[in-house]
Give the backbone structure.
Amino acid sequence: GESVGLHLPTLSVQEGDNSIINCAYSNSASDYFIWYKQESGKGPQFIIDIRSNMDKRQGQRVTVLLNKTVKHLSLQIAATQPGDSAVYFCAEKSQGAQKLVFGQGTRLTINP
Amino acid sequence: EPEVTQTPSHQVTQMGQEVILRCVPISNHLYFYWYRQILGQKVEFLVSFYNNEISEKSEIFDDQFSVERPDGSNFTLKIRSTKLEDSAMYFCASRGGVGETQYFGPGTRLLVL
């Protein structure tokens, strides 16, 4: 069955270091992937997305990497700041579908 | 910057009662969604809505649930007879006609007693 999951439930990094959050997916029909940030008590906030015809996309301080061979997605956050502390979710969508399928989430904690 | 808004932010209700959760999607967006998140768990898809009809729904979205776009700006989720297990955060999302990005609202926390 389809599933999207994360390797690590928690990640703790030093302020200023780079963070890498990983995600595995199992649905070969997935053609769109997206990362959301969720702060406590708030809704998911869009960070960056990528289509399956790409393997890398960069934004401001964030990079998403897609490896379709091993069905792996990662989010890299450069120079992590205290405001980056949140739960990060990956989600995927199959071609022709409307729904996003979310992973379990990784809690990112920034140490001063 | 335009954003999805939801009301109320919190709703407490008795089991068996009807609740209506309201959303105002981003203006000129065409696709509308409801998701829910039980405390500590991942976000789950409920339903998508396009062109005044449901385009996709999950197994969770049974006959107790319904959605409506009563006017040009609101999008509502009705739970006809709430159960204890309906307690969750309910998120509305919308997206435009071009692009896949779904933008989420702040959510309504529903507590069924």
Observations:
- Chain A touches chain B through 22 residues (CB under 8 Å).
